[in-house]
């Protein structure tokens, strides 16, 4: 079913307002919680390390939560090439948190981490696609069939 541009814009604005409202009430996580809040699976770490070898750079996976998707919020994944191994002191945004598992590095901002805390970050290979995914999210009330968007618990 195709939606009109006007309806699409209204839905996007609603999603952004919902994200803004949630972000205003989200609490920052303690340092102890930050380091164990997002479990990076072995498959995910292996894939990030494989990409680093292929690109001959230090590949860092950035994970973020944005307004949008069919359930109101969506996971975003961006691969960043770094010239050297990332260190917390090199992060340019004070809200970014650097996580490491078996030499693989992941950056997540503190507000997004509040929505994925307790989840697993995995790399999934299927017959028709392969992708990074947030799985087993205890903060999600519902998610879409493809697993890209979710509705947070209130």
UniProtKB/TrEMBL annotation:
Transmembrane segments: none annotated. GO terms for cellular component: mitochondrial [4Fe-4S] assembly complex. One of its GO terms (biological process) is iron-sulfur cluster assembly. Its main location: mitochondrion. It is found in: Mitochondrion. The keyword Mitochondrion applies. Residues 38-147 form the Core domain. Keywords: Iron, Metal-binding, Mitochondrion. GO terms for molecular function: 2 iron, 2 sulfur cluster binding; 4 iron, 4 sulfur cluster binding; iron ion binding. Belongs to the HesB/IscA family. This is Iron-sulfur cluster assembly 2-like. It comes from Gracilariopsis chorda. The lineage of its organism: Eukaryota, Rhodophyta, Florideophyceae, Rhodymeniophycidae, Gracilariales.
């Amino acid at each position: 079913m195709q939606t009109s541009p006007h309806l699409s814009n209204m839905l996007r604005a609603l999603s952004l307002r919902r994200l803004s409202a949630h972000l205003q009430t989200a609490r920052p996580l303690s340092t102890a919680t930050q380091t164990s809040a997002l479990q990076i699976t072995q498959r995910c770490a292996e894939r990030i390390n494989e990409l680093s070898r292929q690109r001959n750079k230090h590949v860092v996976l950035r994970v973020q939560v944005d307004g949008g998707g069919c359930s109101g919020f969506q996971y975003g994944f961006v691969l960043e090439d770094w010239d050297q191994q990332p260190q917390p002191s090199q992060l340019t945004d004070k809200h970014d948190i650097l996580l490491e598992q078996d030499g693989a590095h992941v950056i997540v901002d503190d507000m997004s981490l509040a929505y994925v805390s307790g989840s697993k970050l995995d790399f999934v290979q299927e017959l028709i696609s392969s992708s990074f995914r947030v799985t087993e999210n205890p903060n999600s009330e519902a998610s879409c069939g493809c697993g890209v968007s979710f509705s947070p618990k209130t």
